[in-house]
Amino acid sequence: MKKSLFVLAISILISLTGIGVAGTVRAQEKPEIAEKEQFYREQEKLLLKCTGEQMERMGYYHCGITLNRVVERETERKYTFTIHHKKIDRMDAEEKENLAEKLEKLAEDFGTAEPGDVCTFQYVFYTLQ
User: Fold this and answer.
1) What is the pLDDT of residue 81?
2) How many domains does the chain have?
3) Element (H, E) at 109
4) 72: domain range?
């Protein structure tokens, strides 16, 4: 009985030590992850601003632009721009596709934090119809 209690106590202590070590390793990784997230937040703000400016240059004043981000794994990010404007409501599918292609050129300059990171962009035009 005493031997099984001793083995149980040792097992619990080893488990707690493992949890503590794992927590320490995760805590050391957080500054790197925080720096990477800060880098992407700044890039996203810049891209959102540039997209709005480009839309105004093309005559779409005061359009609504929403940027959604999905992070799959640490190295893959998917961005979806949802854009709304009255003129876009009246466009056919081909005109919308041409507009999306023009906007995608802005995203080509989007920087990544690390060489292995992958960012994809999609443009969706919201209509009231």
Assistant:
1) 94
2) 1
3) none
4) 2-125
